[in-house]
Design brief:
11 strands, mainly beta, 56% strand, globular
Length: 117
Amino acid sequence: QVQLVESGGGWVQAGGSLRLSCAASGVTAIINDMGWYRQAPGKPREWVATAGRGGTTNYADSVKGRFIISRDNAKNTISLQMNSLKPEDTADYYCHIRIAAWASDYWGQGTQVTVSE
């Protein structure tokens, strides 16, 4: 059974930093993509960043230059360093993995990030 466990959310003032982490367990196949999504109150879930297995990273324009995604293939973990946080970054953040061999996507339970003025 695949499980994604997130940690690191919380409250911070604008301009501050937070680091999110996610650990995947129960995976017996190669994880292709690992990434983060977020969902603000009353809004649809949106993609934030992805790290491919080979090291390629991609970011949404809204976080580019402020967020850094990193991945450890040996440990099946992923993190998101969030700097220069803005109130509009306030959302529940979800860890996501894609396993192509299983044609499956998995999600974490979400961790809340609140950025105040």
